């Protein structure tokens, strides 16, 4: 029996990782630690919450006393760390909360794991999940590799870059067994509708405008969240200690082209005349410090661990749109704020 702590498991990516681990590894005891901020929604995990190997702990990783007492109560074999403040726009208005969770929270977890494993590191692993945004912005050419220098431009990416450096430093200074991955933009079911794809799906359903930053030429690489969870499973079990792996979809899209594709799919699904949804596009003032282009070279994880995405972007986007249309109740509960009472109903 292995005891695994997954932080941020009520969030978008974390919930897919928790589900995969709970279902695939019945011999593991999975602890989902989440503060249930606005981004944490336990309804994401209602299908597995009664599984015998699943446990939920409500708590804040930025609270050192709480983190230490959790590690005193449990001997964890592994930590998969996803908890974070994750929205760039929020980091521009409130950078400090990103420092508290993403930097202090990560360091509290690193300290607790280091203390717990100091005399026996056999089979232990600290897995830190990060973003390609730490590398900054690319011009028209080139790709981010694992050796690209960090050059973060937003308070979000600066806080993630800082946490990545702490993880590496704990590996060098204290020989903490760690792995780290930097992944491109994720999309898929259970994505909080403040992020581009779910926001626009929701706005199209409700005939609201689709605000596109600047001239819409910002370019991102997109990965289906289920494929990210598969990569996390692989790296956790087969990645080499003290290594970084980039994860990406080999799938670059200009924002405006992505929005047009989404509009076409939505018009077809909703039975509206083609072009209805593109009429909702409005260009809005640019985000400060906006990175022009991110693109990931994911050849290391592909060559060394044999990972590649299982779906094309068109397939993933279609599945995502289907999920949102079939789960309008989830969308309504998240946008109205009702989801926040789920924890009280189920766990109190
Ligand atoms: P999310 O915002 O959907 O979920 C974050 C989760 O962390 C939420 O459940 C929230 O309640 C929890 N949380 C926040 N602060 C906490 C705290 N102080 N203590 C405990 N829990 C706390 O984020 P996401 O999109 O699922 O991202 C998960 C991780 O993956 C983050 O570390 C993010 O940087 C990284 N990442 C995200 C993407 C992406 O496209 N979404 C891409 C690459 C990497």
UniProtKB/TrEMBL annotation:
EC number of the protein: 4.2.1.46
Question: Keywords in UniProt for this one?
Answer: Lyase, NAD
Kindly state which reaction or reactions the protein catalyses. dTDP-alpha-D-glucose = dTDP-4-dehydro-6-deoxy-alpha-D-glucose + H2O
Domain of life, source organism: Bacteria
Q: Which cofactor does it need?
A: NAD(+)
Per the database entry, which stretches of residues form a coiled coil?
Answer: none
* GO MF terms held by the record: dTDP-glucose 4,6-dehydratase activity
One matching Pfam family: GDP_Man_Dehyd
- Domain NAD(P)-binding: residue ranges: 5-320
Under NCBIfam families, the record lists:
dTDP_gluc_dehyt
Q: Which family does it belong to?
A: Belongs to the NAD(P)-dependent epimerase/dehydratase family. dTDP-glucose dehydratase subfamily.
This protein's name: dTDP-glucose 4,6-dehydratase
